[in-house]
Amino acid sequence: MLNRCVSYIVPLMIILIIICGLxxxxxxxxxxxxxxxxxxxxxxxxxxxxxxxxxxxxVLKDTGALNILLYPLKPILTFFxxxxxxxxxxxxxxxSGGASTSIVMEIFKNSGPDSVxxxxxxxxxxxxxxxxxxxxxxxxxxxxxxxxxxxxxGILADICAIVVGIILVNLNIL
Length: 174
Fold this sequence. Notes:
Blueprint: H1 2-23, H2 28-63, H3 65-70, H4 74-79, H5 87-92, H6 97-111, H7 116-127, H8 131-141, H9 150-170
């Protein structure tokens, strides 16, 4: 019953928006097309940055450079029981949702979703945000150049979520 109700929410919202637009004598289709065009312009403007970040992360990972960079942190990671395959996710998650999803899928494939790595990856994906991407989109859409404390607050929230996720999994709470 609940699934059926949930499946009707989006179509009902669309119908409600169309009715409200027609009631206010607005050209709903033109507004929709204009909004879609504006969204495509934003995607077009940020796509090169997202692509560059994703490629850089995979180059670091596939060439072994990430392992070299993480080698000094190995004792700390071992002490806190943080699996090596979680680190690329922690780095990529604030940058790109698509790239971090592919990292999680790789963790699931290699370690399994019920493994320590799989549980940590699930919590990190659910509790964090693509902070840089979101700030870029939201502030870029309204032409705000100074992010003030927004970026710092978002990154701190991501770090807290990652740390709490690691702690919960290591304590076998989840």
